[in-house]
């Protein structure tokens, strides 16, 4: 939501996708989400730039192993810097840019490597991923479908974060919203 007022062309594209796939006579439903690929790209791109847990969770190696050419002894605490991986210029083109289109072909590269890890990978990955993506998709999709969003007094939304184990905004989000003309009848329904 914070990124959209700074990128009106992304907001417009997401609204058009919903208008075509769902129409303007009803609100989106969870069954619509698989057909809203661009909305999913926005969520992926947001989680790439701002992973909820930038260092994921500390893990401990249960056996001696090699990771990327490094010896990791049994019992070592391993921290994975997802924030840095998500902004690695060797992996991502123009890594600092908000560009949902980069995920239009999926979230793996040509060799099938998954490069986006906000929910981690492997046996200890987040078990809530599907629920989280469904919930975020429904909330963001409904706000995008029903309202036009704009900056306050034209001032760019400040995307600074305030650090910590989980990522949080340094400045609370303020944005202008206006019901979309095409959704007025749906919004008036009791
Ligand atoms: C956008 C939303 C969410 C994000 C980005 C997220 C991300 C994560 C991350 C990074 C971990 C640590 C994995 C690791 O390094 O071991 C984790 C673990 C976990 N998450 Fe989520 N999560 C989200 C939503 C949820 C939801 C909705 C639930 C449950 C309803 C959930 C339940 C859990 C549990 C139980 C673990 C611990 C798994 C384990 O240690 O085996 N998460 N999540």
Automatic annotation (TrEMBL):
Taxonomy, superkingdom: Eukaryota
Necessary cofactors: heme
Keywords noted in UniProt: Heme, Iron, Metal-binding, Oxidoreductase
Record: residues binding heme: 126
Stored Pfam families: p450
InterPro entries associated with the record: Cyt_P450 (IPR001128), Cyt_P450_E_grp-I (IPR002401), Cyt_P450_sf (IPR036396), Plant_Cytochrome_P450_Monoox (IPR050651)
One function term, GO molecular function aspect: iron ion binding
Protein's name in the database: Cytochrome P450
Species: Digitaria exilis
